[in-house]
Amino acid sequence: MSAEGQPAIGPLLTVGQLTKLFGTFAACNGIDLDIKPGEIHALLGENGAGKSTLVKMLFGVLAPTSGEIVWQGQPVRIASPSAARKLGIGMVFQHFSLFEALTVAENIALSMAPGISLSRIAEEASALSHSYGLPLDPKAHVADLSVGERQRIEIVRALLQNPKLIILDEPTSVLTPQEADRLFETLNKLKAEGRSVLYISHRLEEVQRICDRATVLRHGKVTGACDPRRETPSSLARMMVGSDVAHVSAEGTSTKGAVKLEARHLSASARTPFAVALKNICLKVHAGEVLAIAGVAGNGQGELFDALSGEYPAATDDVVRIADKPVGTRGINARRLMGAGFVPEERHGHAAVSALSLSDNLVLARSQSDRRAFLGGGVLGLIRQDAVKRATRRISEAMDVRKSGENPPAGSLSGGNLQKFIVGRELDRQPMVLVVNQPTWGVDAGAASRIRQALVDLAKSGSAVLVISQDLDEIFEVATEIAVISEGRLSDIYPAAELSREKIGLLMGGMYGKTETAETAHAH
Amino acid sequence: MGIFEAILLTVITAATPLVLAAVGELVTERSGVLNLGVEGMMIMGAACAFIATQMTGSPYVGILAGIASGALFSLLFGFLTLTLVANQVATGLALTILGLGVSGMIGEAYVGQSGIKLPQIVFPVLSDIPFLGALLFKQDLIFYLSIAVVVGVNWFLFRSRAGLKLRSVGDSHASAHALGINVIRMRYLAVMFGGACAGLAGAQLSLVYTPQWVENMSAGRGWIALALVVFASWRPWRVVAGGYLFGAVSISQLHAQAFGIGIPSQFLSALPYLATIVVLILISHNRRTTLINTPASLGKPFVPDR
Asked: Where exactly are the structural domains of chain B?
């Protein structure tokens, strides 16, 4: 690795043989890494490759089991985040470490030296955020801000410490393409100032666009160190995944049948102060079609799913129709009995009960729709364990679910494998209508391509599929039609071939209802 | 002194222990810890304050003993829930049962003894103000302390950096930990402050309200204080409003019962609870502000993943 060429200037940070064990599991196994001053260094890897564990050690959140960290030529022990900050390391977390109940200024104050007054922090934060093109209102409550704005707080908070190294953990996963562009401009500004950036991502295109060097991790080990601009996306992907990822083929899904799922002027008020109201949503999904709904998180995706699945039924029957029958006020089981299947976003606690076995989870989801197959004893409704176990095995085989033991608790599966099981649980019924929210969120590339192919195949076999997703790559892989949700409103539906990423980005930014929400924001 | 003034004085005496215990619990809950043992810490404070006063002859030593016993008793809760990560609800309930039992045992020899009432502290000029003077400036030390604690807590929570840290720990302990705040230490301090306040509230019962020791003399006030915190949506001044309203209605219903108004006495006895709940619900009807003030990690155990 040292053959990479001796740098003219000494590295800012060098990591040698860094290892972190959780029990006997090595989350990081002998990692070597060096970051030069004024470079944007990418840390590439799949979910679970050990990226987050590594940066948590660099930021003092986790203590390494063995190995060394050298900062500006001096070996250091980073015992806590405040020690890391003192050295000059700033961090922007993937799952923001913000306090929703506090204001922007209060959030920033928490990571500053205690002597400075809140009003001065507010002033400085406001000035700094404007100079980097990331405007912020210091008095706003975090709970009221969009995800992009929340990320700005994190970045401004890190920058106020005047760090030499800024670590960004998957920063663009929650941003629109336009917001991401603005972030890249900021990063280039930081680089021009001589600061270093450690940029964690699994998006190859961005890494090639902005990063000078890349270190690739897989299963806790370094599998490559390279200049991403000299690599191709597929060579980078091979380093990340270890093998070529199956390409999802959406060919042959063009035949359109009758309308199977329809929403007519569907509106729903926000159930909680932080939820989004649905406004006059109209959509049609035909048999043989995959309609993908794009949008930045928190724009009403969860609420739309709840209304379509019947988890929170609507006030009138006519606003949701399955196979041309009004079902708006019916519950989730009634809709399942009509041939619909639903996969919600949260795997744990929503789609599955983590502590129960896979077969129990299967019974919970399908005891009504497949009563005859799974329950016996007439009104007693005794569970037919044999039939349920057989179905569990069938689903696991069909979706290639990798698990320890025959029938383990759902919580013991990795995210990707549990997601495959949950999607497979619905596909096993051959549903006429399938509604899926964020089908591959936080899932490794192999499992994701498997799930996407299964969704495409279901549509090919004549079902109507609706996919709600934040991932544009996924949307372009599976969709035949695309719509965008923004602030609880749905755009028109476009054929997938006619939409560009830029157009989707504009729709995500909310060409809908912008003036109206600005007014309501002032009314608070 | 007119009748009205006399009634108001008893209202203040009835409300002070509620306000003290509730503000202490408010700080505990703002740090994300739900301590249901307020009643137990209060009765321990009452017993220890009375015993210390009888032994030394000084009610001021009694006050210190009340505060110390409440804080020590809450330390037991802190050790079980924060260090050993026991269930907070179950531990809090156990603390109440334990406190009622232990206080009854150590106080047994003192039942029926007449105590020493905490003397009034009279502010020379201010106490001559008509009406208000006698109410506000001719009171005992614990009343003055209760006001100071409320003002102090309000300033601490919403103006000081340490208070901001405490609120952040209650909102999201994982994020607070990631920022390098010592979550466990912060919670220990908040729990002990809550215990000290509950102990002081207990001392008020056995040194001011009825200067003697009676088993179970806290009579459910710890539970009312707990409810006040929630209905006041974790805002100190709302706790004061709720506490004084509760005191006012319970005293006036006693007078109403004495006058023999034709309303069933059971209804009158329930009135303080009803009135307090209704008023505090009306105050906190704005769901958004309530949500912003509710400590999001209340009752959730914190184990740093190291």
From this structure: 3-293
Is the CB of B172 less than 8 angstroms away from the CB of A99? yes
Residue A131 CA to residue A513 CA, distance in Å, equals 29
- The dotted CATH code for B3-293 is 1.10.3470
Rounded CA-CA distance B283/B33 in Å is 24
Question: Tens of pLDDT along B171-193?
Answer: 999 888 877 789 999 999 999 99
Give the total residue count for chain B: 306
Query: Are A50 and A220 spatial neighbours (Cβ–Cβ below 8 Å)?
Result: yes
- Verify whether the Cβ–Cβ distance B168 to A85 is below 8 Å: no
Helix axes of B3-30 and B38-56: crossing angle, nearest 10 degrees: 120
Residue B127, chain A, CB below 8 Å: the answer is no
User: Which residues of chain B does A96 touch, with a Cβ-Cβ cutoff of 8 Å?
Assistant: 175
Predicted-complex ipTM score: 0.81
Q: Which residue of A has its CA nearest to B168?
A: A99
Judged by CB atoms closer than 8 Å, whether chains meet at A141 and B181 is answered as no
Do A60 and B180 lie within an 8 Å CB cutoff?
yes
User: Could you give the angle at the alpha carbon of A56 between the alpha carbons of A52 and A62, nearest 5°?
Assistant: 125
CA distances from A182 to A18, A44, A189, A208, A471 (A): 34, 21, 11, 17, 19
Question: What distance in Å separates residue A217's CA from the closest CA in chain B?
Answer: 22
Q: Give the Cα separation of B74 and B196 in Å (integer).
A: 8
CB distance A294 to A482 below 8 Å = yes
pTM value is 0.72
